[in-house]
Amino acid sequence: MPPFLVRWLVKLGVLLLAAGGGFALAFSLLREKPAATPDPAALVEQIREVARLETLEVRLYKRVSFAPEAAPAASVWGDVVNWVKQSVNAKAGRALVFADVSLGLDLGKLKPDQVRVTGSRVELALPPLKAQVSLRPEDTEVIDSNLDSAQTAKLFELAKEAFEREVSADAALQARARASAERQVRALLLTVGFKEVVFVPWPLTARAG
After folding, report:
1. For the chain, first and last CA: distance in Å?
2. How far is it, in rounded angstroms, from Cα 137 to Cα 96?
């Protein structure tokens, strides 16, 4: 074999080895590395922040009324006096009350043990929804009232309780709030590297065995 051909083959071999080493290095650098499993406690904190921002806000109004019961009397004559007072100057109050209601997950119940990670799959039990009511006194209209300050405060307390019951019984509103929270939590979990996100019934129980 001519010497120039031998030199050419040697150079070609060196170039091929260098190219092969370069490809191997590039592959090792560019190949996808398995994502580290997030710490459940840190994951719960991220979920809380996302869910806190995704609280459903609604404004409601309700007509409420309140008539205090007569105070118990110590004698028959006391009952008669109470009856006369209630008949002549009956206490009653009515008002049109407005409120801002926030409906979101009860995040105080969300704990790391409600998250189960298996590889790239995560199972999560989201806590029940919780309604928070803030009355709007600046919008409240007192229609008719001869209540004293304590009785008026009781009137507004009854209104707040009525708002909470109404929101808790509104299936459509509850579904909207939960779907919104699940959508944002799912987006977060996919962002941190999970491939499959499954919401399971609350509470998440430990697996047998």
Report:
1. 73
2. 10
**Distance from C-alpha of 100 to C-alpha of 32, rounded to nearest angstrom:** 48
Which DSSP letter does residue 193 get? T
Q: What span, in angstroms and rounded, lies between the C-alpha atoms of 64 and 44? A: 40
Predicted model pTM: 0.67
Q: What is the pLDDT of residues 111-145, one digit of tens each?
A: 999 999 999 999 999 999 999 999 998 998 988 88
What are the backbone dihedrals phi and psi of residue 35, each rounded to the nearest 5 degrees, phi first?
-70, 140
* Residue 154: C-alpha distances to residues 85, 94, 161, 163, 205 (Å): 20, 12, 11, 14, 41
Which residues, including other chains, have CB under 8 Å from residue 114's CB and lie 6 or more apart? 44, 124, 125, 126, 127, 202, 203, 204
